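Morning. Coffee machine broken again, so started the prediction first thing and wrote up yesterday's gels while waiting. Chain of 120 residues, entered below exactly as on the submission form.
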Amino acid sequence: MGDLVVGVGLRDGVAAEAVLEAIGDIVDDPADLRALATLDRKATESAVATAAAELGVAVLGFTADELAAVPVPNPSGRVAAEVGTPSVAEAAAVLGSGGGDLLVRKRARDGVTVALARTV
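Came back before lunch.
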């Protein structure tokens, strides 16, 4: 099991392939992954569950309140208005890693936003 956690934010209806491609943009070796982390209500979405299964990692879900309590470098007013927290990907990566540092700040592509943190 690896020591990296990818925070994932995504629009409704995004395909698992888009999630996997976005993760591939920031993770060189999937064996380094420990988990995917996201908003609790996204944790059971097909795209996230399928991507996690393909990568062989767990999915961690956090409430909007938990995510909102994490200071992040790139908060979004639009995301806050939509889901109740100014950050999903960056905050979820930090929480999922147990408070680790962000290695990769949020990057967005094809309806998926990802960020990367190392576990402490």
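Residues 16-26 form the longest helix (11 residues). Going to sketch it on the whiteboard this afternoon.
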